[in-house]
């Protein structure tokens, strides 16, 4: 700024004209990065939405969750990973029943997952009331993903910090879908989310086979979960849900889970 006695001259600060001095470069670029970092509705120059990426990081820090399709249905398995021996394992919910033919397992922020599960249940009940038939699994997944995507596009909200494995059966057979905080979805034969996803997927890519039986699918899912836990899987922190054509959605009791975990050791 120059003071000539009569006129004060200020150099332009518009970034189109003003270039920061070399000693100012670091602070200037950091401030620009923080602007993209804080706003959910603003893309960074390289096409990234940082808040969505941070939500994905919340999922990666969550407990490992796996899902496997078999001939007549889908198996969902979670590791509850207790942070204290004083916690009652039964109080931790990571697998949810959405409808008689659909269930889901989550990783990330459980409170966010419960909000999405409640919405999914309402969608299923509304469809049943209006059309007297079960909602197709793919239709439900797309409705949920559309809802999740809306939380990445408007100001004043944040993305859901949870990913979901949604499994179910309908007239077209068994289905397994993975959704992430951006609202993207992908259908899988076998998949995993959470901290141990890479180890789980490595096991599944080697050992998955089409038309497996329910027991084979459970064994494969537990093998993947065990690999993610350095082969130190404990039955008391494992929860298993099965959705099949005979019984629909149901969870396995602790005795059955203990026997299944012993088989893979």
What would you note in describing this structure?
37% of the residues lie in helices and 24% in strands. It has 265 residues and is an alpha+beta fold. It has one domain (56-263): Aminohydrolase, N-terminal nucleophile (Ntn) domain (Glutamine Phosphoribosylpyrophosphate, subunit 1, domain 1), CATH 3.60.20. The strands form three sheets. It has a five-stranded antiparallel sheet. Helix 5 (197-207) packs antiparallel against helix 6. The model is unreliable at 11-18 (pLDDT under 50).
Brief descriptors of the model:
single chain, about 260 residues, alpha+beta, Glutamine Phosphoribosylpyrophosphate, subunit 1, domain 1, five-stranded antiparallel sheet, 7 helices, globular
